[in-house]
Specification:
The chain is α+β, with helices and mostly antiparallel strands and about 170 residues long. The protein is built from four helices and ten strands; from the N terminus they run αβββββαββαβββα.
């Protein structure tokens, strides 16, 4: 159980409004060897981790606590996909499924260069597919990669309207 309060978080930290970086507002550490103004915590897999009184906290949770006065009740999503951009306007409550839909970039196994599009070698067609409610949904086969990508983007807008990609 994390015991950091909003009041204490506001005393300890400052959030850079242009970058979302979280800085110590006061000298910190065992012998106060971390000066005020230093960036708090460290990055792990892109997320900011900050140790407060022996408790590890996510930077985005601390930013939410400072802005809203309470710990986030659910998963938080970084709207722009940058896990270290903890500006309050870049954070929103989301379900795990919504958070997973806000992916940026392509998976490493993607060979088409388009999200949700793959080549069906047996039928010599491009295939579009999307995940909806944890289930794979086939969007059809197409003569061109561009048509398959359009089908994916249309389905993305329809099925995942909160996703950042749906807005593009």
């Amino acid at each position: 159980m994390i015991t950091l309060t909003a009041e204490k978080a506001r005393e300890l930290f400052r959030i850079d409004p242009s970058t979302g970086a979280i800085h110590w507002a006061v000298a910190h550490g065992r012998w106060e060897n971390t000066p005020a103004g230093a960036i708090a915590g460290c990055l792990r897999k892109g997320y900011r981790y900050i140790n407060v009184n022996g408790q590890n906290c996510f930077g985005h949770q601390i930013a939410w606590l400072i802005e809203h006065g309470e710990w986030p009740p659910t998963t938080l999503d970084h709207i722009n996909g940058n896990r270290d951009d903890n500006r309050p306007g870049n954070l929103r409550m989301a379900t795990a499924a919504e958070n997973n839909q806000n992916q940026h970039g392509l998976p490493s196994h993607n060979t088409s260069g388009e999200r949700g599009v793959s080549w069906d070698a047996d039928r010599k067609k491009w295939t579009a597919h999307i995940s909806v409610g944890g289930r794979a949904k086939n969007l059809g086969r197409f003569d061109s990669k561009e048509l398959a990508a359009t089908a994916y983007r249309d389905a993305k807008r329809a099925h995942h309207p909160r996703s950042q990609e749906a807005c593009q």
